[in-house]
Amino acid sequence: MEGIGGDGASVASPLPQLGHNAWRMYQYYLDKSTPHSTYRWIGTLVVVAIYCLRVYYVQGFYIVSYGLGIYLLNLLIGFLSPLVDPELEGSDGPVLPTKGSDEFKPFIRRLPEFKFWYTMTKAFCIAFLMTFFSVFDVPVFWPILLCYWGVLFVLTMRRQIGHMIKYKYIPFSFGKQKYTGKKASAGSSGSRGD
């Protein structure tokens, strides 16, 4: 009896092992793409273009696009929000600067850029796959969905931008001061006595 169970386990083991090896290879290339943000975003734009062409030529799946838009709006809010919300957090611990005299504190996102990119790309891929199943092609009047999403976007972003202005934080890295190391003063000897 033990021989039968052992043979079945050895026959079934190559399939999970193959799946595990494929997952490890996927993780390897995903990790290698981490420092190349420009190429990652170009790849995402290609995926978005393929999805848009698919929806345009099929002339349907507007409810999938609406759901995708709501999900992307949620991701955008997480990307633009700080990890520590000054309105909800007490005065203990570091907070975002609210006065000009406050020291510089780096902006730490609630949703980091890599996770934002990864979940956004994955969402477009899943939405693209959903367009191959007719059960998701619900007949709706798409201009109403577009108007509703536009109103939702404006209201949400107005609140988010108001929050950014109130607490003086910029969620993007361009236009910010960067630490480049200590500047050598003219009167110092240049060597340390460590």
From TrEMBL:
It is found in: Membrane. InterPro entries: Rer1 (IPR004932). Keywords: Membrane, Transmembrane, Transmembrane helix. GO terms for biological process: protein retention in ER lumen; retrograde vesicle-mediated transport, Golgi to endoplasmic reticulum. It holds the Pfam family Rer1. Involved in the retrieval of endoplasmic reticulum membrane proteins from the early Golgi compartment. This is Protein RER1. It comes from Hibiscus trionum (Flower of an hour). The lineage of its organism: Eukaryota, Viridiplantae, Streptophyta, Embryophyta, Tracheophyta.
